[in-house]
Each structure stands twice: as C-alpha cells, then as structure tokens.
Amino acid sequence: MDDIVRQALVKWPNVPSCTGWLMLDRRGTWRMRDDAAQASGSPGEPIRHEALLGFINRNYDADESGQWYFQNGPQRVYVELGYTPWVVRLSADANGVLVLQDQAGGTFEPTAVFIDEEGGILFADSSAPARAAVLHDHDLEVFSTHATLADDSMNGEFHWNNQVVLPLEALRRGDVAARFGFVSSPAANA
C-alpha cells in the first residue's frame, strides 16, 4: 500500500466505502462503472491511464470476508469481479520457460490448475489462502501447447516448465468463488 494512502487512512479513518464503481473484467482490464453502466449491467469504460492503473494495482487487497477492494486514499472502493480477483497471462520466453504474470505485473507460481465447464482455465498458487487466477483467453493456445487433455477435455495434465506436472481438475464456474474464498460482487454495505 502506498504511503500516501496510509497517511489518508490515519487522517480520515471513517470515510464510507463504495461499491459498483470499479470492475476487474474477465481479461484483467480495470473498468470504471458510472451510474448508467451500473444500471444497465454494463462492464463500464476501460481505465487506460497508466499512473492510475499502477495506483490501483499497488493498493488492491481483500478484506477479511473475501471482498476485494482498491484503497483509494481513505476510501475503500470495492471491486466487482468479472470472474476471479486475479487474471494471468501465460507466455514462454526464448528458452521455452513459462511465465505467469497477473494483471498487477506480479509473477504467479501455479500449484494447481482447473478447467471450468466453459473451457476457462484457472490456476491456484501456494499462498495462504490460495489465490485463484483465471487465464486470459488469448493465452489458451500457449496453455494447450503445454497440456495433455483427456478425451472429455475436462481432465488431463499441465506441464509447468518441464519440472512439475499439475493435474488438470474440473471445477464448476459457479463454485470457484466459494472454493477460493472470494466475493464476486461485494455487498452495498461493505
């Protein structure tokens, strides 16, 4: 968390939180949701300002009930999640070493891999509690190059850097939030 945010929290400790105004979509894009977007159920406008994106990413966290928020100075802005609190990109460097990087630019070391009924790929890491990250759909080809799928395409193995073989487990999309302890749509009284 930025020092300026910590200072604002001390100076103004009782600023009410807000919900509905910020979304992390299924592809890891931060979106601003005005009243019209919220009323229509639209994902809102993508945030493109690099400094603001950096500020959001540095001050992104979860509360004790699994609701993710951006600490905007003294105010918590709870985040609507398009799927999971983290979205990862999968790439291979020139030597074929795989790298997973989350939307905030951090590395993600997978310890488990899942597939949902829509073909979405999810990774979990070893943090406590485990973080859940959905794979950006543009990286499915890279994933498939390093995976062996069973005939039903709901099971198989993922070969992580030729060192670790992670079983590919089926997981219903509707069960992901409960399994990993996060809230997709924070309560209005957060």
UniProtKB/TrEMBL annotation:
Name of the protein: DUF2946 family protein
